[in-house]
Design brief:
The protein is α/β, with parallel strands linked by helices and about 280 residues long. The protein is built from eight helices and 14 strands. The protein folds into two domains: about 20-130 and about 235-280, Periplasmic binding protein-like II (D-Maltodextrin-Binding Protein, domain 2, 3-Layer(aba) Sandwich); about 130-225, D-Maltodextrin-Binding Protein, domain 2 (3-Layer(aba) Sandwich), CATH 3.40.190.10.
Length: about 280
């Protein structure tokens, strides 16, 4: 995905620079910000960069409030660290710069931890995201074994890692076996890829399992996943490179959320508990 799942729903969620919202942590813990950098302790706030266009991880409800699995996890992180969460919304491609320039303390917005990004940032990995091939409900029966994709058209956002993963799948399972290659239909978003199968211009599309879990709630039965998941990748909380104190604090916060069950509860609430993982620093390799 660019390296992220860019599946923007037709809910027309506009990401506007500078839009902020505060979400208070619940009852203060005896940590009271202990371990966090002094400036965060002094302000009592942890500023989180977010692009609200990746349901069910982060998006806006009909009332314009921030909701989603990441938003709920941020609330729990604020609770265990004893600080208020301040969401600072930006377009996704500006989030990394927001952390580098100090506009936000961390970025938590469905962002993949990658080796390339680790050159300028550190990550606390917290969720194993995976991509899935899917079809409209009636077509799912046509894809029971992996070679069924050979010669078929698969719509994939060219901005995502899924494009490369599907190309590699085609080479391994089709071309190297003397079968016709998959015809990759590059789109500019997951929404556009989904439109291709809706209109019959593609046989399959590829998108994150998280998005598909959301669609199953909003449009039950319209789409069905097929075959095995694409290789998983960790989503991470991005922190400016070298800020060890903040990175360690966020890691410890997630470990506490694992221990008290709040982490698992959030994932289950959003039907994405398949992606549960132990938090780790810079796990991508």
């Amino acid at each position: 995905m660019s390296k992220r799942h860019l599946a923007i729903l037709p809910l027309a969620i506009a990401a506007s620079i500078g839009l902020t919202a505060c979400v208070s942590g619940t009852a203060a813990t005896n940590d009271d910000g202990e371990g966090l950098p002094a400036e965060i302790v002094a302000s009592g706030k942890l500023r989180v960069g977010l692009s609200a266009n990746l349901p069910p991880m982060e998006y806006k409800d009909d009332a314009g409030a921030y909701v989603g699995a990441d938003v709920d996890l941020q609330k729990e992180l604020g609770r265990v660290l004893g600080v208020e969460i301040e969401i600072v919304e930006s377009p996704f491609d500006q989030l990394i710069n927001s952390a580098q320039t100090g506009r936000v303390d961390i970025v938590m917005s469905g962002m993949s931890d990658t080796v390339e990004r680790q050159k300028t940032a550190d990550f606390v990995d917290y969720f194993k995201s995976e991509g899935r091939l899917y079809a409209t409900g009636p077509r799912a029966k046509d894809f029971t074994k992996v070679t069924d994709i050979c010669g078929k058209t698969i719509a994939v956002s060219g901005k995502t890692d899924y494009f490369t993963q599907v190309a590699e799948l085609s080479k391994r399972e089709c071309e190297d076996r003397g079968k016709p290659a998959v015809e990759l239909l590059s789109t500019d978003s997951g929404t556009a890829a989904r439109l291709q199968i809706d209109q019959g211009r593609a046989d399959l599309a590829a998108q994150s399992a998280e998005n598909l879990a959301y669609f199953e709630k909003t449009e039950p039965g319209k789409y069905s996943t097929v075959l095995e998941p694409l290789p998983s990748k960790p989503l991470g909380i991005l922190i400016k490179k070298g800020n060890k104190q903040l990175t360690d604090s966020v890691l410890q916060g997630f470990k506490k959320m694992h221990d008290d069950g709040s982490y698992a509860e959030v994932l289950k609430r959003w039907n994405i508990d398949y992606g549960a993982m132990e938090p780790t620093i810079n796990g991508a390799s």
